[in-house]
């Protein structure tokens, strides 16, 4: 693995992701202030359908472009690599147009018979035209990932977020929507417009970079046989998992109503968890997702060259570092979740749910990294099966638990789901790479190192942000001390 380049690209993507997630988090705060919890809930229903279509339109082509270019370039066949990516662009355009038309034409039926809320129909129609732009942009992003060039895609995603926020804020101020339906339509206008601008920028970067390859396109015989084993499992997985996820998101307000909540309160409770709490939990992944994306290329090349020891070393290192990062995040959410959400949303319930959902953090973050490793090792079929099992269990648990336990049933479903999916993925990773997990060094010691200062901070009357900083500094000192002691013992031995 080209360590310096890997770290450089990861740092670029992490800084970009940090900026994007920060803007998105404040964007959510702005939406919560302007639309309220019920409006956020309605918006999340719309986005659950959009996520279904957008993931199908992008996930398969992104991974295919990355894998094909990586595999051909690893053998020095750059002309074939260029040809394969160009074909992927045409395929992505066709897929995006197809699903964009389907989404537009079925919006009224989905709103009436599936979401049971006609206020969502117009917003879905406004989102449908963005799918072709998004699909082609995803293919280009896959190409740049394989090229180990993260700056163009990082700027692209940052540009996209700025445009989305600016259009929403401007349209909201100009139109001043007086209903939740109009507010949601105003919100999604920014998404569609941002995808259009994003594609223009991506195509310019792609054309410029292709010239640097300085080679003509060479036809690849039986390219479909190379594309199908990579793209089909991912697309089928996306279709099934996100379809079941959409069913789950519809069942949540329905289950809350059966538990006694009226329509408005059901959407509000749904909005608090999915639109407020989950973005906070996902925010720290800005330092995880870039490396989980880059690791696909590294693993793919090592797999193509049959470098088993490199695969084992990289997998073990990524697994350990993810635990070192995610465990303190979990503990901080448990101890300071209420303070964090009150400062962001001025909502006590959001803080309660953040503390309750904190245990999923290590599993969620590990799942991101492990899935990236498995994709690079040609294990996308296993990845598909695990996600499908997870999605089916989520739907079943949502249907059974929410009518009886209400909003606490949502918490239980999320925790069980994240635990199950991650355990299955880790089991597969261990089997494929033969890594060994050091429970004390990777889990017990880091937990003790962060829980201790958090308990001590309860007795100090200072700002919670300062408490978090002190806890993290203490945690870092203890980890550094452990590493120093370990290194000395190895040298003495």
Instruction: Provide the structure class.
Output: mainly alpha
Fraction in helix: over 70%
C-alpha Rg (nearest Å): 23 Å
Largest sheet: none
Number of strands: 0
Shape: globular
Order of helices and strands: HHHHHHHHHHHHHHHH
Amino- and carboxy-terminal Cα gap: 29 Å
Strand-residue fraction? under 5%
Number of domains: 1
Low-confidence stretches: none
Mean pLDDT: 84
Number of helices: 16
How does this model look, in words?
The chain has 493 residues and is mainly alpha-helical. The protein is built from 16 helices and no strands. α3 runs parallel beside α6 (180-213) and α7 (223-258) packs parallel to α13.
In brief, what are we looking at here?
This protein has 16 helices and no strands. The protein has helices at 3-74, 78-114, 121-127, 130-146, 151-175, 180-213, 223-258, 263-282, 289-304, 308-345, 348-357, 361-376, 380-405, 407-433, 439-457, 464-492.
Question: How are the SSEs ordered, and which strands pair?
Answer:
Elements: H1 3-74, H2 78-114, H3 121-127, H4 130-146, H5 151-175, H6 180-213, H7 223-258, H8 263-282, H9 289-304, H10 308-345, H11 348-357, H12 361-376, H13 380-405, H14 407-433, H15 439-457, H16 464-492
